[in-house]
Design brief:
Layout lengths: L3 E6 L6 H12 L3 E3 L18 H6 L2 E2 L12 H16 L4 E5 L3 H8 L10 H14 L1 H11 L1 H6 L5 H14 L17 E8 L2 H17 L2 H7 L15 H7 L5 H23 L6 E4 L4 H11 L1
Parallel strand pairs: 1-4, 1-5, 2-3, 2-4, 5-6
Helix pairs in contact: 3-4, 5-6, 5-8, 6-8, 9-12, 11-12
């Protein structure tokens, strides 16, 4: 039998974790997390890390395995995840991967694109511009230089914007023009399952999840990380908004409403990314598990 990776994707709060556990139990296998926000041991409530019961139900990898102080790139994850999948495949023909971080999923299933070396002075200049003028100015510059990337990446992530801009400026070509490399060969077949729902329902689930996070102690979690707020890992939805509350720039109610708004925007970008992948088999969030397992068995 061919070695297989079942990859579960979709927008945040759609139910990917629950499905991954059902499939892991069904196929008696282990789960690779490709949610880059859940890598960090200091962040759990705001990143929706699986509960203790969920983690015990099936063996998980890459959940809270590094610190926010560690340097860990998508390239590092590609290497480590491929190694772990190979280890799982020594005893099981099927492994599960779950996560909504599109770039990290792509790194494992298809490999990363190759980019030319860029003069490091360009990054230094862009960082200075970010400090002096803010992210919005850089976002607008990217929109002008590469509209395609502007529409596709996480614009609220300064590192993504800086990376795209430095390639545009350093090469004189759009960042998106380098995203055409052939897929890398993998020692396994990938079957990708997507979960989706009507946009209004996705947004309702997101709003409910944020309310539950707040009830479960998100505010205390973020306050404990306040001294690390400048670390890249913490420049993410659910944390950066509450930092503004603790710095007395925003009220708590406004910060929570911004978390909901920015999470909804994030979900929209996730769907934009995954819809480019024509190999995804989409199922409704309120799925019949037998329909999904039957589809997987057909593909096997």
């Amino acid at each position: 039998m061919t070695k297989v990776l079942i990859s579960i994707v979709g927008p945040t709060a759609i139910g990917k974790t629950a499905l991954s556990i059902k499939l892991a139990l069904h196929f008696k296998t282990e789960i690779i997390s490709a949610d880059s926000r859940q890598f960090y041991k200091e962040m759990s409530i705001g990143t929706a890390v699986p509960s203790k019961e969920e983690l015990q139900a099936a063996k998980h990898h890459f959940i809270q395995h590094i610190s926010i102080k560690d340097s860990y790139s998508v390239g590092d994850f590609e290497r480590d995840a491929i190694s772990r999948i190979k280890a799982i495949h020594k005893t099981n023909d099927i492994a599960i991967m779950v996560g909504g971080s599109g770039l990290y999923v792509k790194a494992v299933t298809k490999g990363l694109d190759d980019f030319p070396e860029i003069n490091e002075n360009i990054r230094l200049e862009l960082n200075k511009e970010l400090d002096d003028n803010g992210l919005e100015r850089l976002q607008e510059r990217l929109r002008h230089l590469d509209p395609k990337t502007y529409k596709a990446i996480a614009l609220d992530n300064p590192q993504r914007v800086l990376r795209a801009l430095e390639v545009c400026i350093g090469t004189g070509q759009p960042y998106s023009s380098f995203l055409t490399n052939p897929d890398k060969s993998r020692p396994f077949k990938t079957i990708t399952i997507g979960l989706n729902a009507e946009r209004a329902l996705i947004y309702e689930r997101i709003n409910q999840r944020v309310d539950i996070m707040v009830k479960n102690g998100l505010i205390d979690e973020v306050e404990a990380l306040l001294k690390y707020k400048d670390l890249n890992a913490l420049n993410t939805v659910g944390y950066k908004e509450l930092f503004k509350y603790f710095e007395k720039e925003w009220t708590l109610d406004f910060a929570i409403s911004e978390i909901k708004k920015n999470t909804r925007r994030f979900a929209k970008r996730q769907l934009t990314w995954f819809r480019k992948n024509e190999s995804i088999k989409w199922f409704d969030y309120d799925y019949d598990i037998k329909a999904i397992t039957d589809y997987i068995k057909e593909q096997l």
